[in-house]
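dumping this here before i forget
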Amino acid sequence: MQDTSILGAESHPLHLHGFNFFVVGQGFGNYDSNKDPKNFNLVDPVERNTVGVPSGGWVAIRFLADNPGWFLSYLSNYQKSFWFQRMF
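structure:
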């Protein structure tokens, strides 16, 4: 999840219903698919169901989608409701 389109003073909480996930990486600026995965923590990542996406940055999560159904993934900042995304 990347939050570099709107610069603000606070991070945006990302919550995924129906799953816990592992936070394998995060950073500031645009995500670089060539450079950033080299620094991912795939050995003992933190398990969460909510994480703060840094303002002007990104978070990489990993989860096993083994819970069938419709679940919402959203940034918990309701005035920016256009960020709601359905995951199925």
